[in-house]
Specification:
It contains ten helices and no strands. The chain is mostly helical and about 230 residues long. The longest helix is centred in the C-terminal third of the chain and has 30 residues. The N terminus is likely disordered.
Length: about 230
């Protein structure tokens, strides 16, 4: 768990509210990364109760005092860890907004399921939802730093499809996203059974077809077969 999450942590030294930290002794980025990695890994594996400062300190190889000097509560610590969460695949897409629609749809099909499986995002989502009664602010942080950027990227694809006539001109972009996301959450969290990358890719493909992007999906699949 630790090594997997360490690969997804990057960013600056801002806190979860986006405010720069005050002056003082310089922070050790490696120590910060170890603490954030441990906090997120324990939270995903065991939930909020399993991510105590004592357990985080032990996992990160630091003292509890080291953590207390940086974060006053575990909720703010986990919020900072969520704020630094990035998926490696997103860093290599370049100027993806200018790509053809079928390529954009193909990226969703190819990289979306991989991200959910590799980064254990299914369990992360379940932990976030489960923490709402005890730490409701975490859901807001998760929306801001994880879901909102992905919705913004998805908006570009839906708007492109609408402009090119692949979707009706009056398609409600936000509602389209809600239908896609709602179906995906149902598949991930409510349907029993293990979720594999191959299985999720098949589900992504079927879902996009049902939502009206069948032509773009077909062009992507044809290009993949001819490559």
């Amino acid at each position: 768990m630790t090594q997997r999450w360490r690969r997804t942590l990057s960013g600056d030294t801002q806190n979860s509210q986006g405010k720069a930290r005050g002056p003082g002794r310089p922070r050790d980025p490696q120590t910060d990364a170890a603490i954030l990695d441990a906090a997120l890994g324990l939270f995903v594996a065991n939930g909020l109760d399993g991510a105590s400062f004592e357990k985080i300190a032990r996992e990160a190889g630091v003292t509890r005092a080291t953590i207390y000097r940086r974060w006053s509560t575990r909720e703010t610590l986990i919020a900072d860890a969520l704020g630094r969460l990035k998926e490696n695949a997103e860093q290599d897409f370049g100027e993806w907004r200018a790509l053809p629609l079928e390529v954009l749809v193909g990226m969703m099909i190819d990289y979306g399921p991989k991200g959910w499986v590799e980064h254990d995002a299914r369990r992360l989502l379940a932990r976030i939802i489960g923490s709402v009664p005890d730490a409701p602010d975490l859901l807001g942080v998760f929306w801001e730093v994880y879901l909102a950027p992905r919705r913004a990227a998805f908006n570009v694809i839906v708007e492109r499809a609408r402009a090119e006539g692949a979707l009706p001109a009056d398609t409600d972009v936000d509602m389209f996203q809600d239908m896609f996301s709602g179906a995906l959450m149902y598949e991930l969290l409510l349907k029993p059974g293990a979720k594999t990358e191959e299985g999720l890719r098949s589900y992504f493909t079927r879902l996009l077809k049902e939502l009206g992007l069948g032509d773009a999906v077909a062009r992507h699949l044809a290009n993949a077969q001819s490559a």
